[in-house]
Amino acid sequence: MVRPLFQYLRDEGVPRSRKIILSPESFIAIMVAIAFWRWGDRFFYQSPKIGDVATGLIAYASIALGFCVAGLTISLTLPDQDFATRLAVLKGDEEPTNAYSDLLFVFSWTAIAHWLALIVLFALTLFAESSSPLLPIGHSRLRGFFVSATACICAYCLCQFLITLITLSQVGNVYIKHLAACHVEKSTKSSLPSNQ
Length: 196
Hints:
This protein has helices spanning 2-13, 17-21, 24-43, 50-76, 81-89, 99-127, 141-191. With 196 residues, the protein is mainly alpha-helical. It has a domain at 50-174. α4 (50-76) runs antiparallel to α6 (99-127). The chain starts with a helix and ends in a 5-residue tail after the last helix. 23% of the residues are buried.
């Protein structure tokens, strides 16, 4: 498991590392972590309870993870070979990756982020009392750090899932244009007189 993960990060993550680190979703997640670290105990000293938050987030992360795996599978089995080829050769200026690779990466990266969130949330439910407030009065620095880190990961997952949905919509729009162009091409060919 560790070797394929490092290979994935090297082959897929490193070429996109700048986009990942300098993305709005990373910035938002860091701001959420800082807010929880600095002011979380002012708002969450009584409620919500850890069990309630963790259960809801586990349900969300599980559904999102399943969605991403299904999207990745569908992207790998695109029925239209011309469209898949078009995505595979479509590159931006000075980009090391193509549009098809980027599409697969969005699904896989979002799935991995949600997998990590599930691990952290399961650890939270295993090692913290579920009826305890998120950040009770007099909580330890370790608890504050863990809650802030968990909030950071979950905020990143929520933002990344939104990016995944937007990406899927954009690919749908490109596919619609591709279908329209194919239709026009077929209509043009069928209207040409055939040589006798």
